[in-house]
Amino acid sequence: MPQTYIIHALKYAHHPRTASDNFIGPTDFHETSMPLDYFVWAITSGKDTFLVDTGFNAEIAAKRGRTMLRCPSLSLADIGIDAKHIKDVIITHMHYDHVGNFDLFPSASFHLQDREMTFATGRSMVTSFFNAAYNVDDVVGMVRKVYAGRVIFHNGDAELASGLSLHHVGGHTDGLMVVRVWTERGWVVLASDASHLYANMNNVNPFPIVYHAGKMVEGYKRLKELADSSQHIIPGHDPLVLKLYPPSSPQLRGMAARVDLEPEY
Fold this sequence. Notes:
The model has no long low-confidence stretch (mean pLDDT 97). The strands form 2 sheets. Strands 1, 2, 3, 4, 5, 6, 7 and 13 form an 8-stranded mixed sheet that branches. A 5-stranded mixed sheet has the order 8-9-10-11-12, covered by helices on one side. The two termini are 29 Å apart. The chain is globular, with a radius of gyration of 17 Å. It has 8 helices and 13 strands. β9 and β10 (177-183) form a beta hairpin. It is α/β, with parallel strands linked by helices.
């Protein structure tokens, strides 16, 4: 059997917005409120810890008009993880809300798709349509990590450890990847921005920040192939995650959830 992991979804920021901001096509939601939550995800076993994405800091939150709730390192500390000791960080893609805070993880190597680095530093970035969701200082910071020998590149799908694998999906960015994790309830997939919200995937209506809409739609099918069921897919920004899944502890209800467990509702 594969290694069994616990997965914590850790909320660190929030953005109120309307439903029309979250879909390319028309919806039945009209102008109803449909906010986004911002997460990092901690994957732990008895001996190994992996972090998925690193979030942004208060400076970027102010610049982007997001509500910063707490530093991701504090959320990790709440579940007994010291950010300074994390060895493996999986960067699903290099948008500003997934790849900041390098200074919090001095011991980490960063797992990244070849195609994401190529995309984030290549010809697509000459236009604001593609570069607006990137923070150039974070991109430069990742290049510096390459030169320091702290980036581990992946070309497509890869098994990172027993019970934990990376899968290139693309669509949202050219090098987006998702994370498949074996848990006590089966295969859970951390979709990151392959589906911001449950509604993007369930209604086959992509989020407006997209590199290739066709590949994003194909990605919804890939998520379902990788996960044991639709309830085993965890979208990247949906506030419903914290309502559906049990909290990491009673004190952390509304801020951290155990998505390796069965939903409460």
